[in-house]
Write a structure and sequence with these properties.
Elements: E1 3-4, H1 17-23, E2 38-41, E3 52-55, H2 56-62, H3 64-74, E4 89-97, E5 104-110, E6 119-122, H4 134-150, H5 153-168, H6 188-202, H7 217-231, H8 247-257, H9 259-273
Parallel strand pairs: 1-2
Antiparallel strand pairs: 2-3, 4-5, 5-6
Length: about 270
């Protein structure tokens, strides 16, 4: 029975056994008792899929303080603080050539962990090639394809023409739910705010949209951004700045209010079932 130290700060953090071999050398260490307790180690710079069991005597050689702190806090009895979800990919964000050699790497955002914990993983190895995560590869490629299309010369020309037309003559107010907004029907006050934001954009004027809590500012803001994308064909990046704790909330809201995102999710669920 081993003692488990899962999670970033709970585990023993170091640079890996390879670094230990170079700095200290394992040849001089005493033989390891097969019955001694082992500890599940989370390595610095690596995701939880790379967690591994390490005997306590080996940890004492290069992570003594962390091991003693763990024993002081949790005692010698077997315990388990590992979160299984932290080893489950949630989103593939980027792709790059492997810096150390041939091949490619994917930047992976892990479930229930913030984006600051994202790690680069080999594209053709480990958890990334499991069938249940093929849809994450497809989503990443779809996003990249969409970006290339938005920045193509024809798309840029259409965006410039739309912007010039809006500046010359203010766009007419939307009288009902626009086709580019899904989710639930917008309330009248949200539609008024949406039209106001559209006019401010057409005039190239900055705007601060503020209202009391609970009146649907998030939905209105997303509807406005969807208007820029679908109605005015804007190609410039759209930046949403929110606290880190609210990123998942905004992602969920964006998917809820975007018909395109909802359709993609339905297709992915159908493909996964098949």
């Amino acid at each position: 029975a081993g003692t488990v130290g899962g999670g970033g700060a709970a585990g023993v953090l170091c640079n890996g056994v390879g670094a230990l071999e170079q700095q200290q050398g394992l040849a001089g260490l005493p033989p390891i008792d097969p019955n001694e307790p082992e500890y599940l180690v989370k390595w610095v710079g690596k995701s939880h899929v790379h967690n591994e069991w390490v005997p306590g005597s080996l940890l004492m050689a290069f992570a003594r303080r962390k091991l003693l702190n763990f024993r002081k806090k949790h005692g010698a009895a077997p315990c388990n603080f590992q979160v299984a979800a932290h080893a489950v990919p949630e989103r593939f964000m980027a792709r790059r050539p492997t810096p150390a050699g041939p091949g490619w790497e994917v930047l992976v955002k892990w479930k229930d962990l913030g984006y600051e914990h994202a790690t680069w993983e080999p594209e053709g190895q480990g958890v990334l090639i499991q069938p249940e995560y093929i849809h994450l590869h497809k989503e990443m490629w779809a996003r990249q394809t969409k970006v290339l299309q938005r920045y193509s010369l024809p798309a840029q020309q259409v965006a410039q023409a739309k912007r010039a037309a809006a500046a010359a003559s203010l766009p007419p107010d939307l009288q009902g739910q626009p086709s580019f907004v899904g989710g639930s029907p917008l309330y009248p006050h949200q539609l008024v705010a949406l039209n106001w934001l559209r006019r401010m954009w057409a005039r190239s004027q900055h705007a601060i949209f503020a209202d009391e809590m609970g009146l649907g500012k998030t939905a209105t803001a997303i509807a406005y951004l969807q208007s820029l994308i679908h109605e005015f064909k804007a190609t410039a990046p759209l930046l949403i700045v929110v606290p880190a704790a609210l990123i998942d909330f905004w992602e969920g809201e964006w998917q809820f209010w975007s018909p395109e995102e909802q359709q993609q999710q339905q297709q992915q669920r159908y493909a996964h079932k098949c």
